[in-house]
Amino acid sequence: MKKYRSIIAFALLGVIQVAQAVIVAGGDGTQNTTAPSGDQGWSNVGRISNKPSSVTYISNNWFITANHIKELDTPTNVIFNGNTYNIDAASWTRVVNTSDGTGADLQLFRVTSNVSGVAGISLVSSRPSNGTSVTMIGNGYNRGSEIPSQGYNWGSGTSKRWGTNTIDGRSSLNGTYGKTDVLVTDFDNVNGQAQGASFDSGGGVFVNNGGTWELAGIMIGISRDTAEAKALYGDETYSADLSSYATQINTQIAVPEPAVMSILLLLGGGIWFVRRWFR
Q1: DSSP characters for the chain?
Q2: N or C: which end of the chain has fewer CB within 10 A?
C-alpha cells in the first residue's frame, strides 16, 4: 500500500476534508443510481435533510454516520426510503476507541418514529481480509469530465450511487474529528470501481458474508495529492472499520426506546412491589 497523502474531509476545509457520491470508473458516469442486484445495502443508506451528507441505517431506529457530519452540518432530520424522520437530539452517541477512550469519527443517533419499509442490517463480527470485495454507497458529487489516464473531475450536483472495490489494507487515522481504525480502498482504472467524494461521508461499505450482506465500514475520508475536486487513480477512500467498534455499537442500538424503557421500569417496580408485599 502506498504512503498516504492528505486526508480529505467532505467539507472541503483547505487540505483537510471529509468524504463525498462515489465516483465510479468506466461508463459515462451516470450509472449505478438504482439498487444493485441483491440490494447490497442500497436500502440502508440515506442522507441528512439539510445537506446531501450520508447516513446508514442499522436497526431499531438507529443510524450511524461520521462524527464530522454532526459537528459540521448539525443535522436534525434524515431523508430515508422516501420518508423524513426527526432525529432524537438526546440520542447522539459518540463511538469511542476502546484502547484509550478517545472519540472516533463516528456517531450513532436514533430517530423519533419507527423506520418503515427497510430491514436492519448486521455489522461484521470480524475484520474483512485484504482483497475482500465491497460495495460502497453514498450521496456524494456526480462525476465530471474525464482526465485522460489520470481519473475524473468531480461534477456538479450530487446523487446516491454505488460502486465496487476491494479492501487494500487497514490503518488508523487521527484527525480533527477523531482517531479511527479504517479500511482502505484504492481507486484504479477498473470499470465500476468506486472512489469517495464530498458528501459520501456517512455512507456504507458492505460485504457479502455467505450470501448475507453486512455493514463493514462507514466512509469518513479520502486521500488526494491536492485539495482539487478530482478523483485520480491511486487515490484512496478511508472507511471506519466497524469490526473495531461492533460490540459497543450493537450494545447501544439494543437500548429500548425511552417510552419502552419507562414501561419496563414500571413493570419492574410493580414486580418488586408484589414480591415485597407477599414474601
Answers
A1: -PPP-EEE-TT-BTTBB-----EE-STTS----SPPTT-TTGGGEEEESSS--EEEEEETTEEEE-HHHHHHH---EEEETTEEEEB-GGG-EEEE-TTT-PEEEEEEEEBSS---S----PBPSSPPPTT-EEEEEE--EEEEEEETTTEEEEEEEE--EEEEEEEEEEEEEEETTEEEEEEEEE--S-TTBEE--TT-TT-EEEEEETTEEEEEEEEEEEEESSSSSEEETT-EEEEEEGGGTHHHHHHHHTSPPHHHHHHHHHHHHHHHHHHHHH-
A2: C
The verdict on residue 115 lying in a domain is yes
Total structural domains within the chain: 1
Residue 237 counted as domain residue: yes
Whether 46 maps to a domain, the answer reads yes
CATH number reported for the structural domain that contains residue 201 in this entry? 2.40.10.120
Is there a domain that residue 278 lies in? Answer: no
Task: Over range 176-189, report the average pLDDT.
Answer: 97
- What is the rounded average pLDDT for all residues in the chain? 87
Range of the domain at 156: 6-253
Give per-residue pLDDT as tens, 33-81.
Answer: 999 999 999 999 999 999 999 999 999 999 999 999 999 999 999 999 9
